[in-house]
Amino acid sequence: QVHLVESGGGLVQPGGSLRLSCAASGGIFRVYDMGWYRQAPGKQREFVASITSGGLRKYVDIVKGRFTISRDDVKNTVYLQMNSLKPEDTAVYYCNVLPAMVAWGQGTQVTVSS
Fold first, then answer.
1. Which of 15, 23, 68, 95 is deepest in the core (most CB within 10 A)?
2. Is the peptide bond before 87 cis (omega within 30 degrees of 0)?
3. Contacts of 17 (CB under 8 A, 6+ apart)
4. Residue 76 contacts residue 25 (beta carbons within 8 Å)
5. What is the C-alpha to C-alpha distance for residues 68 and 58, in angstroms, rounded to an integer?
6. Predicted confidence pLDDT, tens digits, the chain (114 residues)
7. Distance CA 80, CA 1 (A)
8. Are β-strands 108-112 and 10-12 bridged in parallel, bridged antiparallel, or unpaired?
9. In 3D, which of 66, 96, 62 has the Cα closest to residue 81?
10. Distance CA 68, CA 90 (A)
11. Backbone angles phi, psi at 61, to 5 degrees
């Protein structure tokens, strides 16, 4: 019912920045809590950041101070601003609904390399 489409990934140098977008459709976006997740090759998918319908934010420790999650309820979109990127941030990034999740989208690839 709810469909999620991630975009905005790419190749950046260490210390660079990217802004990811997640466009949602098929539901009432403003009532959803939303989260960003990432998965590196051969590793489990991990939580990165979340934002509630009221705008309360949470981050995994490793990205605190570097990443910022935000939402635009008019555009039905959640964003992840990523600054001071490190090679360890390289992964496919996904968004989803919290705490229960819908089907995963295709994700967007973030590669941090010189």
1. 95
2. no
3. 81, 82, 83, 84, 85
4. yes
5. 9
6. 889 999 999 999 999 999 999 999 988 888 899 999 999 999 999 999 999 999 999 999 999 999 999 999 999 999 999 999 999 999 999 999 998 888 999 999 999 999
7. 23
8. parallel
9. 66
10. 17
11. -55, -40
Using DSSP's 3-state secondary structure scheme, residue 95 falls into: strand
Distance separating alpha carbons of residues 45 and 112, to the nearest angstrom = 18
Residue identified by tokens 């939580």 is 47
Give the number of residues written for the chain: 114
- Write the single-letter amino acid at 82: M
33 contacts 51 by C-beta, under 8 angstroms: yes
What is the Cα–Cα distance from 8 to 2, expressed in whole angstroms?
A: 20
